[in-house]
Every structure is written in structure tokens, then in C-alpha cells.
Amino acid sequence: MSNATTLLAKMTGFLSAALRCLLLCALLTAGACIQDKGNYDYHDVNSITISDINDVHESYLVSVGEYLKITPTLKFSLGEERDTYRYEWRQMGNIAPYRSVRLLSTERNLNLKIEGSMSYSQTYYLMYCVTNLTTGVRYDHVFKVTVQNKISKGYVVLHEQAGSDFNIDLIAAYGDSLTRYAGVLDMFESSLPRAGRKPLDVLCYYDYTAPTPYDPSNHLRYSLWVLTDKGADRIKAEDYSYNPDYNISKLSLIPAAVLGGKELVAEKMVATMPGEVPSNARSYMYFNGCWFFFNLPIMPYFFNLPINVLPGAGATPYTVAPYIMPVSYYGAIMFDEDSRHFMLHQTNTEDMLNSSKIYSSQKITSEKKYFAWGDSTYRLVYMGNRTWQTGFAVVKKASTDSCALLQMMLEKSGAVQLGKSNFQQLPAGLSVEDFKHFAYHPTLPYLYCATEDKVYKILVSTMAITDVTEQVIPAGSKLSVLEFLFVRAPRPGLLAVATYDPGGEAGSNGALAFYAAEDGTGNLTLAPHPAQRTDNGYQVEMKWTGFGKIVALDYKEQ
Q1: Measured CA angle at 253 (ends 252, 255), to 5 deg
Q2: In the chain, N or C terminus with fewer CB closer than 10 Å?
Q3: How far apart are the C-alpha atoms of 543 and 545, rounded to whole Å?
Q4: Whose CA is closest to 61, among 123, 137, 140?
Q5: Can you tell me the distance from the alpha carbon of 490 to that of 527, in angstroms, rounded to the nearest whole number?
Q6: CA distance 437 to 442
Q7: For residues 548 and 557, what is the distance between their CA atoms, to the nearest angstrom?
Q8: What are phi and psi of 38, to 5 degrees?
Q9: How far apart are the first and last CA of the chain?
Q10: What is the predicted pLDDT for the residue at 42?
């Protein structure tokens, strides 16, 4: 036999042995499986279904000091008696994936008093956990709880009292209801200086420097400013308390030369940020004939140098009108009364890194589409916002009674013209300068103008003017406020109208009502709250009396 034949025979024998071995192993394994059949105790899991708890899209509303009571329904697929269980209610972090912050309760049903770390007005995420101790399987349900002090949110009304005093009322919004709380400064025994002070304005907005920038442990992230002829003071939004450290001078770096020996008294303040981000706070202050800027995002700028200064022109301010049209992200439009030219204070990201740009403003030189930005034949009568991004100005020719409505907006690229409409002939004996109030509906083409005792509606497409006084001013009363709270109020299309009886008793002769403008006519009708009647039939007219003369109002969100 040859060597090749012998090698082939050995290899064949080896492969045969290997195959026999593999076959034997397979048979042994199969036999073991057959013999082991039925040794495992398989059974169904007793799964749990949780119901009768709101899902994460429908928040529970509860007030500080109240009890949150939830009785969940648990359905056990194999019956509750089969196993034992552990129940946990946990407070979670507000960003998914949710992480437990603390254990609130180990009861099957929740009966939780809202206090301690959950006493701040905000939305919290909670999780209900049911653990089957027999199997170790846990079942979870995440839901939201909105905590709100019943007198933390609503319309803040600043009104005069008898004897050179003033107070604040709050028309509180809680759930679907509106409840008026009279004299909250007295109610909370606030030490805010009031005697001998004439109230000017009230302003509310998110701001993490509140109530004082120098005590981070005390920050409430929300500003409530009260302006008077003697000063501008911030009070705690939580309880209306006051401390001299809350005065606007604590946000001021204005040099003594600019103050000119005067005490810092803000005649006007305008906030620009409509959102709920305290670190984005921006505002403008008008003082001593100048506009000043306060900013937190990108770069912090406290009130410092006037912004009504031309770039590179030194420290000499131009004469600026006491009106401004601010936009949150891009700056503000102002008016130079010396050259009769609209001016731009720009706050794009790249501008915020250059203080010389922040403390100056420039002439608007964008394309003339409807009007000239610097028409020296016109002078400014009024300027303000229509929405947080759009605004309008009323101008009048210096030598005639001709006047016009200018519409504009501000975006990253700069100011943009939206239209110009010439006023029609005004009622006999009435000049556009007689109007003390202007309010442009945020979505409908109606401009409302008012004197102290007359209110007019103007259809902007034709500039036709109609007297609507009887719709909003009671006989014998006069007007003190006419305003759309378009930025912060939950229903920006409502016109706030404050009136007072000049012959009535001081301190209780004022009234406030909110009106809805009819689409297609612009006529004003008393607004209900809520807009649609609730399931339990609740709905009230948005009208209140018994204030002093109202001088200002704003919507408080915190």
C-alpha cells in the first residue's frame, strides 16, 4: 500500500471518529432536554394597571398650604390578594429622563400638604410607583402638579387713595376663577413708601435679579416694580414686602455727572421679554430726559450710560422722545426729536459684546417703503408696541393738522416698515394731540384713541373714525387707562379700560373693565371670564368697581 493510500485511510478514520463523537454529544444533550421537560414552574405575571391619575399632559392645580389628594385605581391581572406591594409617591426632576428628588409618601393614596420645597409657584413632576414585592416588578405613572399661591397671579391694579397715598389691588387668576383682593399692600403690611407719593406705573416681568441682585439666596426670579414721583421700588412678588435694597438705585451704575444731582426716579420702565426665562430679562428706563438699558442675557448691563447718544459723538445725548418700541431680541426703536429721525438701539448677539454699541443708538437708514425714517416735517405724537415685535407711531406735520399712522417692526436685520395711513378728518374741535391714549389691537385692524372723556375707534384700512365712548365710559366718568396687555396677559386681545367718577369719593371712585373687540366691526363688548362657560356653569363679567383712580395695571405671572 502506498504512503498516500495509508494517509487517506488514517484521515478517514479520524473524521469518522469525530463525527461519531459529535453525534453522541447531540443525542446526550437532546436526552437531557427531554428528561428535564416540566422541571421549570412557569406562571403568568400579576401585572398592574394604574388609572384615575391625570396623565403628564393634564396638570393638577393646587395652592400653597392646601392638600393634594389622589386616589388611584389599581387593576391586578391575577387579583390583588395574590401578592404584596410597596407604594411610593416621589417628586421627580423636571427634565426627562426623570430622576427621583425625594420620597413624599408611602401610602397607597396620596394626601400631601403643599409646603416646604414644593411651596414655590411652579410646575412639579411627580411619580406614583407600585412595586410587586413577590416578583420585584415596578409599575410607574408620571404626572404634573402646578403649585400656585391663590394670590400670586393676575391683574395688578395700581390706584390712588385719599390723602396722597396709593394701594394695589390684585384680580387673581386661579384655575378658571377671577377673585379680587383689595389693598394687598395693607393686607401684607408692606413697608413700601407710599405717603405723599404720586403713583405713576407698575411693571411685572421675569427677572432673576429680583428682588435684589446682591442676595442670591433670596431670589424669586420675578420683578414687580412700582414707580412713583419719588422713586422706583421693587417689591417681592411673593408677599409684596419691601426693603430699601430693592430700590432701582441698586440696579444703577449711572454716573453722578449723568444724575445731575437728582435722585434716580424712573418716569417710565418698559420690559421687553414676554417669555418665562428670568435670565433673559431686559428693560428700558426713562429718566431725566434719557433712555437707559438693563440686560441679563449674553452680557449683563445694569442701568448705566444713556443710550440716546450717537456712535462716536461723545457723551452729549440728543433729545429723545419719552416713547420707545422695544423688541426682546433685537433692541428698540426710539425717536430723536432734534433731527426728527427714528433711531435704533440694536441688541443682536454681536452687539452685546461691545459696550460702545450698547451705550449708543444710530439713525435708521433702511429703505423707504412707505415713509421716510427722517422726515423733518413730522414730529412724534406717540410711539409704542402693538405686539412684542411690531409697533406703531403717530406723527403730525409741524405746520398743519395733517397726521399719519406709521407701522413698523424690528428684526435681526434692523427696522422694517409695514405701512403708512393718513388720518381722515378728525371730529370738529379735536386734534390728534388731544388724544392721551393709543391702543392698537394686536391682531385686528383697529386703533383705539382716547381723550379724557371720549374714545374713538379707527379702522386702519380706511382710517375712518367712529365714536365708541358710550360702549366703554359710563356717563359722568372720565378715562384714566386704555391699554392692550399684549405681552403677559393670557388674553392679549382684551382692551383694559379704567374710568373714574371725578365727583365721587376719593379712593373708591374708580372702575376697571375689560372689553373684547368684535371681529369685522371693532365694536367693544364687555368680556366674560373664562371665554367659555365652565362645566359647572362658572363665568363672570370682567368688570369691577370701588378702586381709587387707576393709574396703571399689568399682568403678574408669578
Answers
A1: 120
A2: N
A3: 7
A4: 123
A5: 13
A6: 16
A7: 23
A8: 90, -5
A9: 104
A10: 58
Largest CA distance in the chain: 139
* Cell numbers that stand for 313 in this block: 459723538
Q: How confident is the model at residue 40 (pLDDT cuts 50, 70, 90)?
A: low
Nearest to 201 by CA among 450, 438, 551: 551
d(CA 156, CA 169): 6
SS3 182: coil
Give the span between the Cα atoms of 219 and 214, in whole angstroms. 9
Please work out, in degrees rounded to the nearest 5, the angle formed at the alpha carbon of residue 531 by the alpha carbons of 529 and 535. Answer: 85
The secondary structure element, H or E, covering residue 531 is none
Distance CA(232)–CA(211), nearest Å, equals 13
Q: Say whether the peptide bond before residue 300 is cis (omega within 30 degrees of 0).
A: no
Distance CA 48, CA 65 (A): 33
Q: Which cell goes with 275? A: 417669555
Span 205-260, pLDDT tens digits = 999 889 988 876 766 788 999 999 999 999 999 889 999 999 999 999 999 988 98
Nearest residue to 250 via CA among 199, 306, 278, 210? 210
Q: Where are the domains of the chain?
A: 48-147
pLDDT of residue 260: 85
Domain at 48-147, CATH from 3.40.50.10490, 3.10.50.30, 3.30.460.10, 2.60.40.10: 2.60.40.10
DSSP string, 8-39: HHHHHHHHHHHHHHHHHHHHHHHHHHHHHTT-
CA distance linking residue 54 with residue 79, whole number of Å: 24
Given a contact cutoff of 8 angstroms between Cβ atoms, the answer to whether 59 and 175 are in contact is no
Q: Report the distance separating Cα 185 and Cα 49, nearest Å.
A: 50
Q: What is the pLDDT of residue 101?
A: 83
Identify whether the C-beta of residue 483 lies closer than 8 Å to the C-beta of residue 496.
Answer: yes
CB 323 within 8 A of CB 382: yes
